[in-house]
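debug: dumping io for the single-chain case to check the tokenizer round-trip. Nothing else runs in this session.
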Amino acid sequence: METQAIVELFPLFSVANPETLEWILSVVDEENYGQNEEIIKENDWGKAVYFIVSGWVKVRSNYNHQEMALEILSKGDFFGEMEVLDESLKYLDVITLSDVQLLSISAQRFLQMLFKDSQVHHKMLQLSIRRFRHLYRRFQLQQQTPKIKLIKTLIKLAETYGKLIEEGAEILQIPHQDLADVADISLDECEQIMTQLQHQGCLESDPSCQILFLTNLKQLNHFAKQI
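debug: decoded output
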């Protein structure tokens, strides 16, 4: 991967100086996974930080033998940094939802990078605060209706990771159970709302290529404000 490509793809590296970028490219490893493969097992946290070049993954909890999707991430995002900077989490793993291409950097070299370039260090703090703010907004949604929770989850995925199309965006056709977990609603509620949104002309799906089309983001945002 060229330096310009890594800058355009990953916000964390947009402020890095040229020397840091060249060093990063010399120490990262490229990794490829198929669908439904495990990237990080429960006891593997804290060894590296992973940057998503393409594809979709979910962070999953396995606490007390009950599986639940906690977060869905895609192109341009990264994971594993918290466990490098602090104590490793328990009962969590990362599973691919599609074919995935990653760049990984070992924990030691990731820390070297932060000490090496103060601008990257500062950007890391900004992105960490942004993640905390997102978690806080999810907490605020707990008292909202299931429809608001799911619509806001879809909008977030579309705006953060989606490919823009006319009046909307396309994202991976994420399993309904994973969408339900992330939105904090039941599977039945998720399926009923998804069917309703399709009938209202806001969603279309293409199972053959595993794509979900959000055909009217303006209407979805309107629903989120009006419900």
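debug: round-trip ok. The longest strand covers residues 48-54.
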